[in-house]
Amino acid sequence: MSFFNKFFGGSEEEKSSSTFWNYIESEEDLNKAIEESSEKRVAIFKHSTRCFISKTVLKNFEREVQSSDKNVSYYFLDLLAYRHISNKIADDFGVQHQSPQLIVLENGIAVNNASHQGISVSLT
Predict the structure, then answer these.
(1) Which H or E element spans position 64?
(2) Predicted confidence (pLDDT) per residue in 29-50, tens digit
(3) Architecture of 20-123 per CATH?
(4) Average pLDDT, integer, range 53-57
(5) What is the spatial order of strands in the sheet that 101-106 belongs to?
(6) Are 85 and 116 spatial neighbours (Cβ–Cβ below 8 Å)?
């Protein structure tokens, strides 16, 4: 990785290294998250792998989640690699696209969302 990519983000697809994430890489994965939201809250983190701000917010959010005891399922979406799914989420839940963005689902409905520094475990 070049010097600039370390600071401003690379163009390569990347996954978060935290173990609590479920990854959305298909519409089937999204449907699984929606179904699961009938049992407990689901949080979908939409991340841009090319954005330094998104990377910073992601790292801060992951630290919050790891010290939280909330019963929430966390889903991760690389919105550059899976833009069509990101667009589907915006359309289906009536939530304007942002990056980074956290969308909280309950019973198949978006009950909360935030972007940038507004992203916090407290939303879940």
Answers:
(1) helix 52-66
(2) 999 999 999 999 999 999 999 9
(3) 3-Layer(aba) Sandwich (3.40)
(4) 96
(5) 21-23, 73-78, 42-47, 101-106, 109-115
(6) no
Residue 88 phi/psi, 5-degree rounding, is -65, -40
Tokens of 18: 């935290």
State how far the Cα of 8 lies from the Cα of 69, in Å rounded to an integer: 32
Structure-token pair, residue 99: 């990056």
Q: What is the pTM assigned to this prediction? A: 0.85
In this structure, what DSSP letter does residue 8 have?
A: H
β-strands 73-78, 42-47 pairing: parallel
The angle subtended at Cα 64 by Cα 59 and Cα 68, nearest 5°, is 150
